[in-house]
C-alpha cells in the first residue's frame, strides 16, 4: 500500500485524494434565493444523506478565500433551498452552472434552464429536474482550519419530496434509478453514469425498506 499522512499534505492534495477516494458521489444541484430575491444555482458533490428518522441531508461547501460561496451565504440568510439530482441528460447544463458569473447574471438563464414554483419553500425549483428535494436549514456547522472557517457544513431537512412520474411509482414509493439515469461525480473533470445494476439480500433482510 502507498501511504500518505494527511498532516504532510496541503489542502489541495487532501481534497484531490478525498474526491478520488469517495466515489461515485451524487451531485446536489441547489437553487437558493439571496436576501434581494435573486436566484442562485450551483452544483456540489460533497453531499449525502444523514438520517431517515428525520429526513436530513448534508452538504459541505468549501469557502472561496475565506468567504462563503453564494449558496452558503443564501442558506444562512434565508434558511432554505431546493436540491435537484443531476441526470445524464442535464450534465452539460449542470457543468455550465459551475462557472463563476458576474453579479446580476443568472446561472439558470445561462444554462438554458427554467424555474417553477416550489411547494414548501420560497426558493424556486428547476423544471428540468426529475427529483427535487425542498429543504430548510436544520444545522450549520462551520469547519475551522487554523482558526478560520474553511468549509460551511449544512445539515438540511427535507420538507417536501418531488418526483417526476416517469421515474417514481407512488404505489410502491420506489424510484426507477435506470429511468432516472443519475450522474455521479468522480475526481477532477470525470463523471459517471450507472453501469449494470444488481441486488443482494442482507443477512438481516427484515430491516430493508
UniProtKB/TrEMBL annotation:
Keyword tags: Flavoprotein, FMN, Oxidoreductase
Cofactor annotation: FMN
GO MF: oxidoreductase activity
Presence of keyword Oxidoreductase: yes
EC number(s) recorded for this UniProt protein: 1.5.1.-
SMART domains linked to this entry: Flavin_Reduct
Domain Flavin reductase like as annotated: residue spans: 20-181
Source domain of life: Bacteria
Family the entry assigns: Belongs to the flavoredoxin family.
Name of the molecule in the record: Flavin reductase family protein
Species assigned in the record: Lacticaseibacillus yichunensis
Amino acid at each position: 500500500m502507498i501511504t500518505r499522512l494527511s498532516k504532510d499534505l496541503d489542502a489541495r492534495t487532501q481534497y484531490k485524494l478525498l474526491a478520488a477516494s469517495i466515489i461515485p458521489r451524487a451531485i446536489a444541484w441547489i437553487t437558493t434565493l439571496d436576501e434581494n430575491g435573486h436566484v442562485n444555482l450551483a452544483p456540489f458533490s460533497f453531499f449525502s444523506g444523514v438520517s431517515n428518522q428525520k429526513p436530513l441531508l448534508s452538504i459541505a461547501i468549501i469557502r472561496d478565500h475565506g468567504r462563503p460561496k453564494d449558496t452558503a451565504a443564501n442558506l444562512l440568510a434565508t434558511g432554505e433551498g431546493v436540491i435537484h439530482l443531476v441526470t445524464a441528460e442535464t450534465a452539460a447544463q449542470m457543468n455550465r452552472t459551475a462557472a463563476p458569473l458576474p453579479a446580476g447574471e443568472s446561472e439558470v438563464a445561462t444554462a438554458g434552464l427554467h424555474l417553477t414554483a416550489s411547494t414548501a419553500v420560497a426558493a424556486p425549483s428547476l423544471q428540468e429536474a426529475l427529483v427535487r428535494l425542498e429543504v430548510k436549514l436544520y444545522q450549520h456547522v462551520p469547519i475551522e482550519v487554523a482558526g478560520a472557517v474553511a468549509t460551511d457544513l449544512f445539515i438540511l431537512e427535507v420538507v417536501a419530496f418531488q418526483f417526476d412520474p416517469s421515474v417514481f411509482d407512488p404505489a410502491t414509493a420506489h424510484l426507477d434509478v435506470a429511468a432516472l439515469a443519475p450522474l455521479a461525480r468522480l475526481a477532477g473533470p470525470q463523471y459517471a453514469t450507472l453501469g449494470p445494476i444488481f441486488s443482494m439480500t442482507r443477512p438481516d433482510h427484515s430491516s430493508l425498506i
